[in-house]
Design brief:
The complex is a heterodimer of chains A (473) and B (403).
Chain A: H1 5-23, H2 34-51, H3 53-58, H4 66-78, H5 85-101, H6 104-116, H7 122-133, H8 138-144, H9 146-155, H10 162-169, H11 180-187, H12 200-210, H13 214-221, H14 227-239, H15 254-263, H16 266-271, H17 273-288, E1 297-302, H18 317-332, E2 335-340, H19 358-367, E3 372-376, H20 387-399, E4 406-411, E5 414-415, E6 420-421, E7 430-432, H21 439-449, H22 455-470
Parallel strand pairs in A: 1-2, 1-3, 3-4, 4-7
Antiparallel strand pairs in A: 5-6
Helix pairs in contact in A: 1-2, 4-5, 4-6, 5-7, 6-9, 8-9, 15-17, 15-18, 17-18, 19-20
Chain B: H1 9-12, E1 15-17, E2 21-23, E3 26-33, E4 40-46, E5 51-55, E6 61-65, E7 68-74, H2 91-102, E8 113-115, E9 119-123, E10 126-129, H3 133-140, H4 156-161, E11 171-172, H5 179-185, E12 192-199, E13 202-208, H6 212-218, E14 226-227, H7 229-235, H8 256-278, E15 288-295, E16 298-304, E17 314-320, E18 326-333, H9 336-350, H10 355-362, H11 366-378, H12 384-402
Parallel strand pairs in B: 5-8
Antiparallel strand pairs in B: 1-3, 2-3, 3-12, 4-7, 5-6, 7-10, 9-10, 11-14, 12-13, 13-18, 15-16, 16-17, 17-18
The chains are: A alpha/beta (473), B alpha+beta (403).
Chain lengths: 473, 403
């Protein structure tokens, strides 16, 4: 055996961190407050940064969430002195690639944090310069994220063309701008019509200033809405009798769509059953694409217990992930049996309810003789506590020692006390999950968590992911 | 009147023990009913944050701060299905009824509310009572009259006023560490009608209601309940209570069917263990009971424990139907000092408040008993010179022994 104990620990640490970085957003969860979440998460970041810097940087290539990606980038730039020249070069490429994938408001937030922390080394300035240069429409950014762009430009000592400079730093000295969007912004101060050429978030402020009725404003700003703004405002607009604000549900990402469905009142869901189901199915099929129907016979144990309420900050997130997972697995499987913990069978009419009898549902799932058993749950098995662990242990040791059935547990909730997602049983691999879209990739990653694959293989897997990430084919 | 025997009270009341949920040092055990107790419902009445005054009747006023009260409603049995399932009630009408009938005598603009009695019929089919107060009142009023025979040791005040004023202290659930969180994250079972609260695996409180909907509505009120000092202190033991799920016997399992049978067995074992061991002392032999109110086939009663020293002692209030089924139950675990006080009072009363006879029955001297009474907070019952005499005697014994 060539693996040393240190390797095993490294392997475990990395997986633990990746699980945390996928699930935790530093927000309040059902069981832990945001303070506990952040304290726990910050410890993991510091631990990884100082012990496994290369693996820490490489985790940017995985499906970790935006919150953690921003923290990693900040930490890497803040502690640049600890890295060698080669390391900095490779880190720089991963960071640049990840920043390009992050939503702009996150990146501007990150730049602000760097400024607040007084990080202003040459590498940081170069990264900021390159990212800003690559923005598709700098003028649009300057209007929509005016304060943030201003801060970034100041911090990175960037040169601007005269017009943008004037817009950012001395906007009221100009009589007229050449750039249309700047000009619209200038005119919007006194002219109602001009504000409908601005982004929604900026226009909203002007609308309030001019006292424009909400209904009129929503109707006329409709063409400028982004996809998510449209989804978010749809119900708001409908209540005001404006049908123009209508999101095309079939183009929505799967988990977001599930969150939207779960936020609708039950009556509304019954009324729009066909439309909603079709949208969820289409979205799931798009995610499954090439893998559709290849997973054989799948049984899924899906948690819809009261704890899937999440928190005020993450409303029904765990249930939304389970619901999205349900439709995705339906698309992936040849033959599919969903088992909700509450015993309900209509996925469209779910709401968080009752305890979590995971053990019983796992038994029901195994009874159907599946090829794969997927469990989506926060891992708090409580009716009765610990039965799921016992069932899976005995199943592995006595009934299925040959591992005919692949059992995977996906957990949408970070457990701040354990610095990891909560496991059901040591014999079953557990992976954190943020968006149901990542489910196929996570099921692959979960095999590392089983402890049968060593650090060498994990490193190889990460290297391969990084290579694919930095230079996408 | 047939009182519930200590064992089998759950079974008789149609309650089943469900799997426990633990959080930190708090363990909550749900009690599930297959069908609700008919003809009785509990509501909650929230009072504003003002102290309340209860007019006891003889010019005396009982002043307390009460976060909320319960309202029991019953129907007369001629509309049999009324209590099953969710009741449709006209909310506006209900509010109107409340304003007109229930709180008559309350002048809304006055900052202090006046409630007439602690348990009081508010209309023909409703009774309002303050949760746990029926039980606590029973404990406070224990031999409240004081000495019945004017033995020479008792102070003039004891003979004239009895134990008055008598006070006991308790903590709210919000002060018991971890309880608020444990209640917040508790996942209520379908059909759940009650819960047993354990803190560091000591039974702190029992709560049972007639109907699952009532439970769902009243579950958050547990955090406003009273808990004794013992429970409060146990809350600070930051130990994580273990899962008591049990272990499947590997050798007995050769198929999924057998695995399922093992799971059922574990659940049964847990329920038996819980009912027999963990909740075994909630009901005891030699308790004393008193009926406070008759409510159309139901009875609101309170029970006092036998005050076993160094044991579990719970005071309880309950509503029991004609078949001896518990429709409503709430209990309070007495702390050690409270048990000692109850014990001394019952001993004294059993011997007609004779210091000598009581001391003899306890196997102690009169001096010991007098000092015990003082330590328990009943020093004011004894004449000052008598107490001083025994104190001096004790001091002499200590310093004499030291020389």
């Amino acid at each position: 055996m060539t693996e040393t104990l240190a390797d095993l620990i490294a392997c475990e640490d990395v997986l633990m961190f990746v699980n945390a970085a996928i699930t935790s957003t530093g927000q309040r969860e059902f069981r832990h407050h945001e303070g506990e979440q952040r304290l726990s998460l910050n410890f993991l970041h510091a631990y990884m940064l100082h012990n496994y810097r290369d693996l820490y940087a490489a985790s940017l290539a995985l499906d970790i969430n935006d919150h953690n990606a921003a923290i990693i980038v900040r930490n890497l730039l803040e502690h640049a002195a600890a890295a060698g020249a080669d390391q900095r070069r490779s880190e720089g490429r991963i960071i640049a690639r990840r920043l390009a994938l992050l939503p702009p408001q996150r990146v501007y937030g990150l730049f602000r944090d760097l400024r607040r922390a007084g990080v202003n080394n040459r590498r940081t300035r170069a990264i900021m310069r390159d990212w800003l240069a690559a923005r598709p429409d700098p003028a649009f950014d300057a209007v929509k994220y005016r304060g943030a762009v201003k801060a970034a430009v100041r911090h990175a000592h960037l040169d601007l063309d005269d017009e943008t400079g004037a817009f950012l730093f001395a906007p009221h000295t100009s009589r007229a701008f050449q750039t249309p969007i700047f000009e619209a912004w200038r005119r919007a101060h006194y002219e109602h019509g001009a504000l409908y050429d601005l982004p929604y978030t900026v226009a909203e402020g002007f609308a309030a200033k001019h006292g424009i009725p909400r209904a009129v404003f929503l109707e006329r700003i409709e063409p400028r809405l982004t996809r998510r703004e449209r989804l978010g405002l749809q119900e708001n607009a409908r209540r005001r009798g404006i049908e123009a604000v209508a999101a095309d549900l079939t183009t929505m990402p799967l988990t977001r769509l599930a969150t939207y469905v779960l936020a609708l009142p039950l009556d509304e869901r019954v009324k729009r059953r066909a439309e909603l189901t079709a949208a969820l199915r289409t979205s799931a099929r798009r995610v499954a694409s090439g893998l559709a129907g290849t997973w054989g016979k799948v049984a899924a144990v899906l948690d819809d217990s009261f704890s899937t309420t999440g928190s005020a900050q993450k409303k029904r997130r765990p249930l939304a992930v389970a619901l999205a997972g349900h439709f995705l697995l339906e698309a992936l499987a040849g033959e599919y049996v969903p088992l909700w913990t509450s015993g309900r069978s209509d996925p469209l009419l779910l709401y968080p309810y009752g305890p979590t009898p995971l053990g019983e549902r796992i038994l029901d799932g195994l009874d159907t003789g599946p090829d794969r058993l997927v469990i989506v749950s926060d891992g708090w098995d409580n009716a009765p506590p610990g039965l799921a662990a016992e069932v899976l242990r005995v199943w592995r040791t006595r009934l299925d020692p040959g591992r005919r059935v692949a059992v995977t547990h996906l957990n949408p909730v970070y457990d701040a006390d354990d610095f990891d997602v909560r496991r059901i049983a040591p014999t079953v691999p557990t992976a954190g999950i943020r968006d149901a879209e990542d489910l196929p990739a996570l099921v692959e990653l979960a095999r590392f968590a089983e402890g049968r694959v060593g650090l060498g293989e994990l490193r190889a897997h990460l290297d391969e992911r990084v290579a694919r990430f930095v230079e996408p084919s | 009147m047939s009182w519930l025997e200590p064992v089998r009270w759950m079974e008789r009341s149609g309650l089943r023990t469900g799997p426990a949920q633990a959080w930190g040092s708090v363990r909550l055990v749900p009690l599930v009913r297959d069908e609700p107790v008919p003809h009785l419902r509990l509501d909650r009445r929230v009072y504003a944050d003002e102290p309340s005054v209860v007019d006891v009747g003889d010019g005396t006023h009982y002043i307390s701060y009460i976060p909320h009260a319960f309202v029991a409603r019953w129907d007369d049995g001629e509309a049999p299905a009324a209590a099953y399932g969710t009741q449709m009630r006209d909310k506006a009408k209900l509010e109107k009824a409340k304003l007109e009938k229930d709180d008559r005598g309350i002048v809304p603009s006055m900052p202090i509310r006046v409630r007439r009695r602690m348990a009081r019929r508010v209309t023909k089919d409703r009774l309002r009572f303050l949760p746990l107060h029926v039980a606590v009142e029973g404990y406070l009023a224990l031999h409240f009259g004081g000495p019945e025979i004017a033995w020479s040791e008792w102070s003039r005040r004891a003979l004239a006023n009895g134990l008055s004023p008598r006070s006991e202290e308790a903590y709210t659930g919000a002060q018991v560490r971890g309880l608020a969180d444990a209640l917040r994250i508790f996942e209520i079972h379908p059909g759940q009608c009650g819960v047993l609260v354990y803190v560091a695996d000591a039974l702190a409180s029992a709560f049972v209601v007639p109907h699952p909907d009532d439970y769902r509505a009243l579950h958050p009120t547990l955090v406003e309940d009273l808990f004794g000092e013992l429970v409060y202190q146990y809350g600070f033991l930051t130990l994580h209570v273990p899962d008591l799920g049990g272990r499947v016997d590997d050798t007995a399992v050769r198929s999924l069917v057998e695995l399922r049978a093992e799971a059922t067995r574990l659940q049964r074992d847990w329920a038996d263990f819980h009912d027999g061991v963990m909740a075994g002392n909630l009901f005891q032999e030699n308790e004393s009971h008193a009926t406070v109110q008759h409510l159309h086939g139901f009875e609101l009663t309170r029970s006092l424990p036998p005050f076993n020293l160094r044991g579990e002692n719970h005071i309880r209030e309950s509503i029991i139907d004609g078949n001896g089924r518990i429709a409503y139950l709430k209990s309070f675990r007495l702390s050690e000092a409270q048990v000692r006080r109850g014990y001394l009072l019952t001993r004294l009363a059993a011997h007609d408040w004779s210091l000598e006879a009581t001391a003899e029955a306890l196997g102690a001297t009169k001096g010991d008993l007098a000092l015990r009474l003082e330590r328990a907070g009943f020093g004011y019952l004894l004449r000052q010179d008598v107490l001083d005499h025994y104190r001096a005697q004790a001091r002499r014994a200590v310093s004499g022994g030291g020389r």
